[in-house]
UniProtKB/TrEMBL annotation:
This is Uncharacterized protein. It comes from mine drainage metagenome.
Length: 190
């Protein structure tokens, strides 16, 4: 078989260059920000793009309580969002006031992303120790985490009302032992 000459390779390269649009040759993938990477890694549900958009807004700064998952699901023009947080391994010391403020902020941020969002649910989970060999997936799975705080917020509830509900515990399921042991005592941290 004959080896291609430099002239043949140059002619082939020129022919390919004529066929490909210039933009395809010049296009370089945009570098993803850390916020985009984190948002995509944590996005779930049938409204993946909405979950990513919420995550990109939330991950513009470090959240005191670690956000594990952003779930956005919906049908038609209605969407529902779930935000799952870790109840341990905080990014610094977190008081009850800090936690309440963060929950209000993340809920308001999520609602601001899309008018289609009808409800935002937040839950904070902690791991449950399981013995080696325990089935943790499938039909016979044992739970591996438990909720220590759950909260549902419908569109239209003001941030001030939500803050008051969090402070008073109205419509919120919370484990008081977790609050007593996991959250910092004393004044909130700015």
């Amino acid at each position: 078989m004959r080896r291609p000459t430099n002239a043949a390779i140059a002619a082939l390269s020129a022919a390919i260059a004529l066929v490909l649009p210039i933009s395809a040759l010049a296009a370089k993938p945009a570098r993803s920000s850390i916020a985009q990477i984190d948002a995509d890694a944590r996005a779930r549900g049938n409204r993946h793009a909405l979950a990513v958009a919420i995550g990109e807004r939330l991950f513009t700064h470090v959240l005191p309580v670690q956000l594990l998952e952003i779930r956005a699901s919906g049908l038609g023009n209605r969407a529902y969002v779930g935000l799952r947080f870790s109840g341990e391994k905080f990014h610094g010391s977190v008081s009850k006031a800090d936690l309440d403020r963060e929950l209000v902020d993340v809920v308001e941020t999520a609602f601001a992303v899309s008018q289609q969002i009808r409800e935002v649910d937040c839950w904070i989970v902690v791991p449950i120790p399981v013995a080696p060999g325990t089935i943790v997936s499938g039909d016979k799975a044992m739970p591996t985490e438990r909720d220590v705080l759950t909260l549902s917020v419908r569109r239209g509830e003001s941030a001030a009302h939500l803050a008051q509900r969090l402070k008073g515990g109205e419509g919120i399921v919370v484990d008081p032992d977790w609050v007593a042991h996991a959250l910092a005592k004393g004044a909130s941290h700015a």
